[in-house]
Amino acid sequence: MSTGISIYIIALTVIMIAGIIALLVLTRRMPAPKSEEEKMSHSYDGIEEYNKPLPRWWLWYFYLTIIFSIGYLYLYGGLGAHKGSLNFSQEAQWQQEIDEANAKYQPIFEAYSKLDIPTLAKDHKAIAMGQRIFANTCFGCHGSDAGGTPGYPNLTDNDWLYGKSPASIKQTILQGRNGVMPPLGQNMKPEQLDHLVSYVLSLSGRKFNNLATLEGKKTYDMQCAACHGADGTGNQILGAPNLTDNIWLYGGSFELVKDTIYYGRQGNMPAHKDILGNDKTHVVTAYIYSLSQD
Ligand code: HEC
Ligand code: HEC
User: How far apart are CA 285 and CA 294, in angstroms?
Assistant: First the structure.
């Protein structure tokens, strides 16, 4: 907070409190009503107002709130940049809670991190912890049931971009992944692109005119096979999806596959090593691993 703003806030707060006190003092100074029936001098449409003093309990309440506000401003932050004598801050309180939780759970995570993933994936308590980490950190992209949405892979279907081994799943979570499908359709004639899409879709069993798929295969062998494999089953080192299984990251309609080839796609799985650290990643890996094991 800049000094200028700090001074502005302090001035505003002090003037407000002083103003309220002045208002109270002034109303007390007003002459007491001479009788119960005394009226104020104004009258609106024949409606008049009695001159009654403020009720005592109400006044005391008012004094108490003023004292409370001064005490509060002294103890806690509120007067501009002044931190308050308790030095309280929401960040510090949050950090303290995190530290306490870490002290409590760290030994459990450490013990889990010594077990291998397939063993851990059979431990119900570990899986429940992994699921909570997933619900906090991953559900926004992969969905709360890890079922995925277009562009964000389904983690329950045993179809893997980067491989199903525990080591590669953990690597994905710790280091992140960048899938790059280059925009290759822009240099193709419209007809050539349509033939290619027919060929790609025929790999997972859809029926097209044979001539079209044969033409498409020529383009595929030249431009796509290097990444997706000669038979279209993909390459897990590059994260190039299997095109033969009818499971689609970006959608398997003619138009969507055409878009993929024309515009390219770039899936980004962020690295979580700084967010979760090794031990929590180990536990969430076991959870992910467990999802596709039956
Ligand atoms: C910002 C969105 C985002 C978040 C948050 C995120 N992911 Fe991902 N994740 C992705 C995307 C996108 C991909 C696919 C990357 C690609 O297309 O190459 C992916 C891929 C993966 C894969 C690889 C799947 C495969 O088929 O090989 C795993 C495993 C995974 N994520 C697990 C997790 C876990 C566990 C978390 C939480 C700790 C998480 N992700 C958080 C977006 C996210
Ligand atoms: C440099 C390697 C590379 C080349 C060359 C390449 N691809 Fe890809 N392709 C990928 C990667 C990696 C992805 C996954 C992108 C992601 O994870 O976001 C992908 C994704 C796709 C998808 C989406 C699959 C789905 O499940 O939704 C299709 C379809 C596809 N490629 C078709 C092709 C075709 C057809 C060609 C040839 C014109 C081609 N690719 C060339 C690497 C490549």
Answer: 16
User: CA–CA separation, 161 vs 142, rounded Å?
Assistant: 14
Burial of 163 (0-12, 13-18, 19+ CB in 10 A): middle
CB count within 10 Å of CB 129 equals 21
Angle (CA) 142-159-140 rounded to 5° is: 0
Ligand 2 pocket residue status of 265, Cβ below 6 Å: yes
Atom number of ligand 2 nearest to Cα 268 = 18
116-119, long-range: CB < 8 A, 24+ apart: 116/166, 117/166, 117/169, 117/170, 117/282, 117/285, 117/286, 117/289, 118/166, 118/289
Handedness of CA 98, 101, 106, 109 (dihedral sign): negative
Pocket of ligand 2 contains residue 182 by CB under 6 Å: yes
- Pocket lined around ligand 1, Cβ cut-off 6 Å: 134, 137-138, 140-142, 151-153, 155, 160-162, 169, 172-173, 177, 179, 239, 267-270, 272, 284, 288
**Nearest CA among 232, 237, 235 for reference residue 257:** 232
- What residues contact 51, with CB distance under 8 A and at least 6 apart? 33, 38, 39, 40
Which ligand places an atom closest to the C-alpha of 262? 2
pLDDT tens sequence across 26-45: 888 887 788 888 888 888 99
Could you tell me the two tokens for 87?
């030095």
Mean per-residue pLDDT, 60-67: 93
Percentage of the chain beyond pLDDT 90 is 78
In the block, tokens 């009695």 appear at 50
Ligand closest to the CA atom of residue 146: 1
Going from the C-alpha of 135 to that of each of 139, 159, 270, the distances in angstroms are 5, 21, 16
* Any ligand 2 atom below 6 A from CB of 238: yes
Q: Which atom of ligand 2 is nearest to the CA of 151?
A: 18
